[in-house]
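I hope you will forgive my troubling you with a question about protein structure. I should value your view on which stretches of the chain appear to form regular backbone elements. Here, with my thanks, is the record as I have it:
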Amino acid sequence: MTHLKYDANQGTVLKESHSHEDNIASHIKNVIAELGEDPQREGLKDTPKRVSQSLSFLTKGYRENVEEILNGAVFESNMDEMVIVKDIEVYSLCEHHLLPFFGQCHVAYIPKGKIMGLSKVGRIVEMYARRLQVQENLTMQIAKTIQEVTSSLGVGVVMEAKHLCMMMRGVQKQNSMMTTSCMLGHFRNDHKTRAEFLSLIKQ
């Protein structure tokens, strides 16, 4: 049996077992039984397999990397004004309870001789979101990656999300919204640049 090998430096899975979904399904079946249910009853019989397939999709970011996502879509450009991609949908799993959090992400960067393909911004957000996460780290990972890829003068990322671990359990606050931001380069050092970004994403 080949086991998953996680490379912490690259943030990707290097090897993947052909039967990893079967292994996960077996564990899910045991969890269902431990919860006091009958995993063999009609409504639950195929649940372990479905949950395994679902988790595989929801964590597919471990099996992706930036180079493959970009696929060469970084281009030379004289553009030196702020580029903003706003309202990018985010769906992720909280690493503390494996419950979803979801919302929107707003990304901006100031090019320095290079721009990236529009869809690649969303794909980078998606890659990191499809891992076990906390929102603070997710926001920072997106910003740092775009900074590295574009060598830009600055990057700003703002994320707003609702967390089911806070809504469904624990304190059970239904209307809470968490906002995180990561500002690099001009967005951190120049308050006018930061204010322009924050103003534009509210429009």
